[in-house]
Design brief:
single chain, 551 residues, alpha/beta, Rossmann fold, 2 domains, seven-stranded parallel sheet, three-stranded antiparallel sheet, 15 helices, 18 strands, globular, Peptidase_S8_Ser-AS, Peptidase S8, serine protease
Length: 551
């Protein structure tokens, strides 16, 4: 699982108080509070936000036609949260708590959605595993370290698949790290001698002394590998690892540590497989779909609660925060606390949301490897056929998605893409892409506020918190889509998409730090539209499209 949540900031520097929403009312960007900043606008407050408040000002004399149903495919929800309890979707076909499948859809008491990671006894699956690890462990005994010259034609094809799996398997990386560690430990004698020669009066060496040991233009692969191995350990421990005589004498412990990390990953994987089996379904059969439970609250619900709040936290109760739109939130749990969102559950969540009236589905998750991508494609095509928009977070790896696979995505086949797909990157107040955000001139459609976005959470101490991630950017766009449909429900999915993508705050020509590398790049090269979502202009364009349809 590529967990899209990157950072959590406690309110008031963890002081335990809530910053009043009124704090957002300022024209000085240096003093703009992160509370509700994503609802502001560049025109009025000077921040590159979504212009939601301006959109409502524009719509103040118009009454919404209805509340849009929004599917939140995520990690669960606290249905008792003060800012969410009154905006939850209510299944009209179910009588709550009677233990009967009243609407005969195969899911008993699915009042506010469904938990596809729920066990038959009402508990939760919290620990998962990655699909790449599953495939690696299936094939590693046969292909790890093999002489490829002796492979048959069939085996060469399977070996190519194995190499692809290895790119994404944490267990594979950990296994290969052992060999690197063993080689690095042997090379440690060289580094130890050189450090003593360079600093004869020192007995302990920190990263500032170790760093220059690799000179620019070094070509020795063994030296480079050993250097990077030790440097990574300095960095992982925040420079607390000191190179000393004691460390050198006990250098073999680094190998043992690396082996322990590998074994832990394997043990966690097998535990995840065991827990997955408690769901009671056949994970290799997409039609085995009637499993799970209606208990939407899980330990991993914080992420889903935060996402849901951004879209539609109660705008009228004068507490907490305001969501982007007045909506009905339908929660579908697909994300375990650790591990991948499985293709099967993603597909079933999409179909459930479509069948139960959702017009837009937020998917703030992603992963680099898919085992049953066709199942997701079929479900997304079904959503497209039914006129449902899919909003997906671009991911938080700081990579160019034009050059790297990421799932789910817009591709039905090599040359055919979904018409109902919108991929969202994250920006900060200054209009720069977040340094963690994925990007892509072809694969990402637009950007939206995704840094220090304040929203609802599931936590015993706090009810609200700021988080970073494209996970936070996607629901801003989802909320804008729902806002448009609230006022113009007759518009088609393609028309609403046109309104959102055709109205961005353009950042074309703005030279910004490229995520991941920090190199300077034109914002126009980061996404298809070259801009940031603008609710006001999206509403205006939607209104124009609506009026032209009704001439």
């Amino acid at each position: 699982m590529n967990r899209v949540l990157l950072k959590m900031l406690f309110v008031g520097a963890c002081a335990g108080f809530t910053i009043p929403v009124s704090a957002q009312k300022t024209t000085d960007t240096k003093n703009v509070s992160f509370v509700g900043w994503h609802l502001l606008s560049y025109e009025k407050e000077g921040v590159y936000a979504a212009g939601v408040n301006q959109a409502y000002e524009y719509l103040k004399d118009r009454k919404p036609a209805k509340k849009t149903i929004v599917g939140i495919v995520d990690g669960g929800v606290d249905i008792t949260h003060e800012d969410l309890k009154d905006v939850l979707w209510q299944n009209p076909g179910e009588i709550p708590g009677n233990g009967i499948d009243d609407d005969k859809n195969g899911y008993v008491d699915d009042v506010h959605g469904w938990n596809f990671l729920g066990t038959p006894d009402g508990k939760q699956m919290e620990l998962g595993f990655t699909m790449a690890d599953q495939e690696y462990l299936k094939l590693c005994e046969k292909y790890e370290g093999i002489d490829t010259t002796k492979l048959s034609a069939k085996e060469r094809g399977e070996y190519a698949y194995f190499k692809d799996v290895c790119k994404y398997s944490p267990i594979c990386r950990a296994y290969r790290e052992i060999a690197i560690a063993e080689a690095a430990v042997k090379y440690a004698e060289v580094f130890n001698r050189e450090l003593k020669e360079k600093f004869p009066k020192k007995k302990k060496f920190e990263i500032k002394e170790f760093g220059p040991l690799l000179e620019e233009g070094e070509t020795d692969p063994v030296r480079i590998s050993a250097y990077n191995f030790f440097l990574k350990r300095f960095q992982r421990r925040k420079n607390r690892l000191e190179w000393s005589e004691q460390f050198y004498n006990n250098r073999n412990s680094v190998v043992e540590e690396t082996k322990a990390e590998y074994n832990k990953l394997k043990n966690d994987y097998y535990e995840g497989v065991r827990i997955r089996s408690t769901l009671g379904d056949n994970p290799e059969k997409i039609n085995d779909r009637f499993y799970g439970n209606n208990n939407l609250l899980a330990e991993s619900a914080m992420h889903g609660v935060h996402v849901g709040g951004i879209v539609g936290a109660n705008r009228h109760n004068n507490i907490g925060i305001e969501g982007v739109a007045d909506v009905e939130l339908m929660f579908l749990r697909v994300g375990p606390g650790a591990g991948d969102e499985h293709d099967k559950e993603v597909a079933l969540c999409i179909r459930y949301a479509v069948d139960n009236g959702a017009r837009v589905i937020n998917m703030s998750f992603g992963k680099p490897f898919s085992l049953h991508n066709k199942w997701m494609i079929d479900a997304m095509k079904y959503a497209e056929k039914k006129g449902v928009l899919l909003v997906h977070s671009a991911g938080n790896d700081g990579i160019n998605l034009d050059e790297r696979d990421f799932y789910p995505n817009r591709y039905v086949s090599k040359n055919k893409t979904l018409r109902n797909w919108i991929a969202v990157g994250a920006n900060d107040m200054n209009g720069n892409p977040a340094p963690f955000s994925n990007y892509g001139k072809k694969e990402v459609d637009l950007f939206a506020p995704g840094v220090n976005v304040y929203s609802t959470i599931y936590d015993k101490r706090f009810k609200y918190r700021a988080m970073d991630g494209t996970s936070m950017a996607a629901p801003v766009v989802t909320g804008v889509i729902a806002l448009i449909w609230n006022y113009f429900p007759e518009l088609t999915a393609e028309e609403v998409k046109e309104a959102v993508l055709g109205s961005v705050t353009s950042r074309k020509g703005a030279i910004v730090p490229c995520p991941g590398s920090g190199e300077k790049i034109d914002f126009a090269d980061l996404c298809r539209t070259g801009g940031i979502v603008n609710a006001l202009e999206a509403v205006k364009l939607a209104e124009k499209i609506y009026e032209e349809k009704h001439k």
